[in-house]
Amino acid sequence: MTTTIIGFPRLGEFRELKFETEKYFRNEISADDLKAFAKELRQKHWNVIKDAGIDQIPSNDFSFYDNTLDTSVLFNIIPKKVKDLDFDELEEYFALARGYQGEKGDVHALPMKKWFNTNYHYLVPQFEKTTNIQVNTTKIVDEFLEAKELGILTRPVILGPFTLLQLGQYHDGTSSADFATDLLAAYQEVFTKLAAAGAEWIQIDEPGLVLDLTAEDIARFKEFYQTLLANKNGLNVLLQTYFGDIRDIYEEVIALDFDGIGLDFVEGKETLNLITNTPFPEDKKLFAGIVNGKNIWTNNYTSTFDLLAKLPKNVVLSTSCSLLHVPYSVENEVFSDEIKQYFAFAKEKLAELVALDKTDQAAIEKNNRIFKQERITANKALQEKIAQLTDADFVRLPAFDEREALQTDLLKLPNLPTTTIGSFPQTKEVKITRGKFKRGEITQEEYDAFIAKKIDDCIAFQEKIGLDVLVHGEFERNDMVEFFGEALDGYLFSKNGWVQSYGTRGVKPPIIWGDIARSKAITVQWSKYAQSKTEQIVKGMLTGPVTILNWSFPREDISIKDSTYQLALAIQEEVLDLEANGIRIIQIDEAALREKLPLRQTDWYSEYLDWAIPAFRLVHSKVQPETQIHTHMCYSEFEDIIQAIDDMDADVISFEASRSNLALLDALNRNNFQTQVGPGVYDIHSPRIPSVEEIKQTIGKILEKIPTDKVWVNPDCGLKTRGEKETYASLENLVLAAKEVREGLVND
Ligand code: GLN
Ligand code: ZN
């Protein structure tokens, strides 16, 4: 057998590429400096992979920002507006990635979307009438040659035409069919160039194959690859898939003239069945994704050997997806050795592939030992509690209508009540003070006094401008997941466990290490304090269990459903504690609820929503009827899961609402959505201050679709990333707009 990987993290061991690129953005280094730095980094990474003993090493998995953008640029799929700026290659690339505003003109960044079921984001290819597909850059060949010079014969990676066209957005009445012929010719040209440069293999990534496919999709894929593979120029072609199985197209794929096919045995729950039912052809290599490319846990060799025994002989051992989605190395962590042995980040996963390939006895014995011993002592009481949950635990009583009437009576809020999503600007001062506290430079008392003062001012401001439901401002929180993770038992935090989210941005997901429990109140102190400062209602602010889970590295030894239920019980305790301490409205944010929605629509309910929605209900099912439960989501794309959202059985939901989502309002209306709604009336992602008139118009549009007694008025997300000045001005306008619309209603 041999070993390979699909791709390697590119930001660098300590996010060096991020910092260097940001220096370039700030004009502190030149383009040549940045390019030279990147070249060295690529070298380092190829050598790390080679020294680990991996046989086939990819290239062109490096990117300054995003591989999908690289592919768009490679094929000259560049909006005319950006082309016209007449930049050089790197400037143009970053103008596409980040937008450009300067003496040459003004262009927006390309839209960005979540990459399949990961927290990585890609830049969406834009096809226009003027798009003229041709080979436009030499990056893929250059990087191949760069490695070749080091004596490493790599396998260049490229995103395939099927997925590229599937992800694209089409303008000026164009459609994907208009571009297929030129695109295939351009891929062909890349083949020719790579073959001429001495490449033996090319890896074409087609993750789009793991989605639900229509008959037309299948026909299109076949047509594309019959054309491409008719002329391989002597190259061996690896078709690489990941993030699931290719059940809709497996038979067609193995009948095509690929030399290797990469299948995911980790997330692809049907993959083993597929190759058992229709044997994998003997004349092709099976690139078997057996080491999890997304999670950070040590591979269980015994289970992997069991799996390998069922696979054909012509296997190349690989990861389930690119290692882009895991941090660089456990070496850079300060966990004890006892803990470290359970973790495998990118570098350690290389070693795993090699150990599995070489059946390295010492490594296997060590691995067996790890999996034989008890990693953590399970929380038996908690397990029992979860096992004993009954349907009643997931149902809040009385039913919605009765609660709504009662709350309307008791809370005495005006029509169109105004509120915010929770956080207020996290100014430099807030971050610096938190940093000082964490480093022990100021005492707990000093830090608390600082937070208390921030809350005082925040409450006073909200009272002054006349908001109806107040918040404490979340000044004590770094991040909506990390904050809760740090307060709960069962979490571990890495020091350098960064994963690229988009461009130069990384996230450092906390690790769920053990059973989750809440051993102390988390938010009660500051919520209570804020409430003591005003006669008005202050909302309590929590992050929901599904979001906490989706933004953490989950365990592999128990299901994510079980971990979510553990989180739900912990947050439930917090909810009840807040209620007992006089908090009358509690918001439970589920900003990331949609994130783990399975890629195949057919799996949405059975694999996810059927437990994720109940997990949310479990959190609030035990509150008193008069306590009002809010939730918040950072997007408005839930037309397709509208019933599930209503089934969360919150009393109020706020969400992002831009011009485009009037369609959602229609859908809410059509579906008799019971939950009260706060569609964001202005976009907090921009520093613009919306005028009273604008907000009034937006509220007007909402009232055309939603009954007045169901509508709340709020911004579309938390305000923590905004400056204070624009925030204050925007909120004042929001309150004025709501008041004016209200008066209009009374007079009508
Ligand atoms: N309550 C959180 C805040 O206001 C919600 C953040 C979010 O939705 N991402 O910051
Ligand atoms: Zn949000």
Give the arrangement of secondary structure elements:
Layout: E1 2-3, H1 16-25, H2 31-52, E2 58-59, H3 67-74, H4 80-83, H5 89-98, E3 100-102, E4 105-107, E5 112-114, E6 121-123, E7 126-127, H6 139-149, E8 155-159, H7 161-167, E9 169-170, H8 180-197, E10 201-205, H9 215-229, E11 236-240, H10 250-255, E12 260-264, H11 271-277, E13 285-291, H12 301-309, E14 315-319, H13 337-340, H14 346-357, H15 361-372, H16 380-387, H17 400-411, H18 428-438, H19 444-465, H20 482-487, E15 489-492, E16 499-502, E17 505-507, E18 511-517, H21 524-532, E19 539-543, H22 545-550, H23 560-580, E20 585-589, H24 604-620, E21 628-633, H25 642-646, E22 652-655, H26 662-670, E23 676-679, H27 692-705, H28 724-747
Parallel strand pairs: 1-14, 2-8, 7-9, 8-10, 10-11, 11-12, 12-13, 13-14, 19-20, 20-21, 21-22, 22-23
Antiparallel strand pairs: 3-4, 5-6, 15-18, 16-17
Helix pairs in contact: 1-2, 6-8, 18-19, 23-24, 27-28
